[in-house]
Amino acid sequence: MTGERPERPDVTPRPRAESRAAARARMAQQHTWVDLQVRQAMERGDFDDLPGAGKPLKLDETHDPNWWLRKLVERENVAVLPPSLALRKEDAELDDTLDKIQTEPEVRRHVTDFNERVVAARYRLPEGPPLVTMPRDVDEAVAAWQERRTVRQAEQRAKARQALADLQEPPKRRRRWWRR
Fold first, then answer.
1. Helices and strands: H and E segment counts in the chain
2. How confident is the model over 108-137, as a mean pLDDT?
């Protein structure tokens, strides 16, 4: 073959109007097929136990083109804060976030990233309340993280020793009520 398409004698090209009419007919049949599937599902009772059955729909009085976004934020409890408030909230939770990190280089990287975002927010035009969050000293943050980590590890060792001692201690004999 030289790249030519073989002729198909049994297929004749349809005129454009006839092709459109065939597409409309297929769409009409598809609608009836969908209606048939829905009707059969209703007869089987597939829609009987759906959540919200028998409850009114929550419809707004006004048309909101971003209704789906508002519902998503409401359903997923997404909080969209201005950058200054988001950084302030992250600063308040930074020690707890750092405590979940296992290695010092990761802690340094996280604090450095936080500081870069604070500095970048200071150079931008303010969006919302003023930015009062200051960058953190990386070495001080790492030292505080190491201190908290040491205390946490000591507490875990003490709990482990106590649990081991409890396991090794023989169980106390209970006195029966009739042997007083």
1. 6, 0
2. 91
Quick one: 143 exposed, middle or buried, by C-beta within 10 A (0-12, 13-18, 19+)? exposed
Residue type, 63: H
32, 26 in Cβ contact below 8 A?
Answer: no
Which pLDDT tens digit goes with each residue over 75-89?
Answer: 887 777 888 888 999
Q: Where are the beta strands (DSSP E) in 33-165?
A: none
Higher-confidence residue: 77 or 99?
A: 99
d(CA 161, CA 166): 9
Mean pLDDT across the stretch 134-143? Answer: 94
Ramachandran sector of residue 54 (left: φ over 0; alpha: ψ -120 to 50; beta: rest): left
All residues at 6 or more sequence positions from 99 whose CB lies less than 8 Å from its CB, including other chains: 145, 148, 149, 152
Query: In terms of pLDDT, which residue wins out, 57 or 43?
Result: 43
Contact predicate 136/94, CB 8 Å:
yes
Please compute, for residue 59, the number of CA atoms within 13 A of its CA located in the half-sphere on the CB side: 5
CA distance 153 to 161: 12
Read off the tokens for 87. Answer: 């950084």
- Rounded Cα distance between 92 and 164, Å, is 37
